Amino acid sequence: MITKKIYFLSDLHLGAKAISSPLDHERRVVRFLDSIKHEAKAIYLLGDIIDFWFEYKTVVPRGFTRFFGKLGELSDMGVEIHWFTGNHDIWLFDYLPQELGVKVHNQALVMQIDGKKFYLAHGDGLGDDSAAYKLMKGFFRNKFCQKLFSMIHPGIAVSFAHSWSKHSRETGGHIGFSGEDNEKLVQFAKKTLETSHIDYFIFGHRHIMLDLMLKGNSRVIILGDWISLFSYAVYDGKDIWLEQFEQDDSVAGSPGMSIAF
């Protein structure tokens, strides 16, 4: 009998202009989903799955047909699929839940799985109290602002959003592991543990692989990405660990990419 497992992955950034072959990238993700479909009890997509997504009432953004088709297949097989909005796919509304049976989460979620307490979130903004971030997120979440954006022709809106994303990646980028004392998500987890026990904090957003032991056998896990690491976490009901799919030789052993304690 196959032991059903739970899978966590984030930061696929499907459709990103910075990826040299978006179609090959999507096919790789689909191969992964196909490889786990008979073992998966649930799949948690922890944000930035698509590099940009905005749901219009009558228009479906171009692309992602293989990916959505595979999610639909898995959902029809009885696999639970949870999608947490990130800072790139923040505008998920009712299309995916209605068409694919995906459960969309707009906030962090604390839940029990097989007797263990999980804190699940994309991770953007956690530990960041800056006024600039709060203002930006409030703007993106504002229904009136969303309505105004929906009035822009999709051809213009989508092109602008991808240009913004590419520029942000080129000018800001993602640095490697910056040390336990400087990682905002680690500091957020530590602060949370002062008032509540969590067995596993699982985040995306940072584009690094991290499995770090905290006090009380709590662990913080950062899932990496599917731009260069092709990484994910697996929970079998007893333990959780990070893995990589079709790992490239250029990635294996890269410094600062995988930290495990």
Short structural description:
This protein has 261 residues and is of the alpha/beta class. The protein is 31% helix and 22% strand.
Write the layout of secondary structure elements.
Blueprint: E1 5-9, H1 22-36, E2 40-45, H2 65-76, E3 80-84, H3 95-100, E4 103-105, E5 109-113, E6 116-121, H4 131-141, H5 143-150, H6 154-171, H7 184-193, E7 200-203, E8 209-213, E9 219-223, E10 231-235, E11 240-244, E12 258-260
Helix pairs in contact: 1-2
Write up what this structure looks like.
The chain has 261 residues and is α/β, with parallel strands linked by helices. It has a single domain (5-260), classed as Metallo-dependent phosphatases (Purple Acid Phosphatase, chain A, domain 2, 4-Layer Sandwich), CATH 3.60.21.10. It is 31% helix and 22% strand. The chain is built from seven helices and twelve strands. Strands 4-3-2-1-10-11 form a six-stranded mixed beta sheet, covered by helices on one side. A six-stranded mixed beta sheet has the order 5-6-7-9-8-12, with helices on one face. The longest helix is centred in the middle third of the chain and has 18 residues, at 154-171.
Give me some keywords for this one.
single chain; 261 residues; alpha/beta; Purple Acid Phosphatase, chain A, domain 2; six-stranded mixed β-sheet; 31% helix; 22% strand
